[in-house]
Amino acid sequence: MCIIYIHIMTEPDKPDTNSSMLFNAYKFSMAATGTGETSVRDGNLKSLAESVKLKDNAVSAVLTKQKQVNNILDSELDRLAVKKDQLANAQKGQMRVLMMNESYRKRQAEYTKLIIAVVVVFALVIVMRYMRVFFNVLPDVVYTLLHILLFTGVIIYSMITLVNVSSREKINFDRLDLPGPKIESTADFDARNAAAKLAGDLLGVSDSALCKGAACCNPTGTVDKTKWDETTGKCIQKTQ
User: Fold this and answer.
1) Residue 54 domain-assigned (yes or no)
2) What's phi and psi for 224, nearest 5 deg?
3) Residue 57 pLDDT > 90, yes or no?
4) What is the pLDDT of residue 9?
5) Which of 19, 78, 87, 125 has the greatest count of CB atoms below 10 A from its CB?
6) CA–CA separation, 121 vs 114, rounded Å?
C-alpha cells in the first residue's frame, strides 16, 4: 500500500497555486495501484477538494475586501485633492486681500506725511506771526522771506508726494503703474505708411515688400540716376 502525504500551503496573493496543487494531487492518486486503497484515496481527494474550495473562497473574500478598501482610499484621495485646491485658492485670496490692505496702508501713510507737513508749516507761520507781534526782533523782510520759503517748500513737497502716489499701482503700492505699449491699429499703420511715402521718408515705411534706405536708390539708371543722402535720409539726384 502506497501512502501519499500532501501538504498544501495557500498564499492569499497566489490563488492559482491551489488549482495546480489539486491537479498534482489527482495525478498522484490516479497513479496509485491497489483495490484496497480506492476508498481511502477517494476520501482523501474529497477532503482535499473541500479544503481547496474553502481556501479559494477565503482568498476571494480577501481580494473583494482589498478592492473595497482600494476604492475607499481612491475616493478619499480625490476628496483630499479637491480640499487642497480649495485651500490653495482661499490662501491666494487671503494673500491678495493682505497685499491690497498693505498697499492702502502705504498710500494713506504718504497722505498722512503730506498733512503733517502742511500742519507744521501753518504752525510755524502762526508762531512767526506771534513773534512778530510781541517780540519783533527780526525785520519784516526776514519774516516775508521765511513765509515764502515755507509755502514754496510745502507746495513742492505736496506736488512730489501726489505725483509719486498717483504713479503707483492701485493693488500693489510698491510697483509703478507704467502704461502698456501702444498697439497700432491697421488704419493708423496704413496712414503712417502713406504719409511716409508722400514725404519721401523711405525709412518710415514699414512694409517688408518695399525697399528701404539706400536700396531704393537707382545708381545705374541713365535718366533717373539717384544716390542715398545720409543727411536727409532720402534718394537725391546725382549731378552730371
Assistant:
1) yes
2) -100, 75
3) no
4) 42
5) 125
6) 11
